[in-house]
Amino acid sequence: MSKILFIEDNEALRVDVANALRNAGHEVLEAEDGQAGFDLAMSTGSVDVVLTDQNMPHKTGLEMVRDLRAQQTYKDTIVIFYSTESKRTLRKQGWDLGIKGWMIKPAPARLISKTIDKALAKRREQQEAAA
Question: How many domains would you assign to the chain?
Fold first, then answer.
């Protein structure tokens, strides 16, 4: 089981996706905006995956990821964006921050879960190869 921090300002969407991820066997922490997500990440210690929206109040997804990457605990955490935003310039900023995916809303919950599982499997393979 992996621990996922899901940051989404649309409550109905956040609840639906979080429940689907829980049903797929993940532990899910939820936050309603970028600042709340950052604060929850800091108080949690660590998570395996951050799944985040881009356009949110108080702190955008990219701003939140920049702040997380500045913390030793989160410098290599898997980050996947789930957003209606698809501008190439924003996605490039995300790739420059080391994100592992940018999914466009709406996407079926099974695709979100599959994307997360693939990123986790790839991380495990890399860790095993390095050992």
Answer: 1
Using one digit for the tens of pLDDT, what is the confidence trace for 48-67?
Answer: 999 999 999 999 999 999 99
Q: What pTM was estimated for this model as a whole?
A: 0.94
Report the sign of the C-alpha dihedral through residues 117, 119, 101, 40, in that order: positive
Query: 85: domain CATH number?
Result: 3.40.50.2300
The whole-angstrom separation of Cα 45 and Cα 77 is 12
- In sequence order, which ranges of 10-108 are alpha helices (DSSP H)? 11-23, 34-44, 61-69, 88-96
Residue 86 has pLDDT above 90, yes or no: no
For residue 18, give its domain range: 3-130
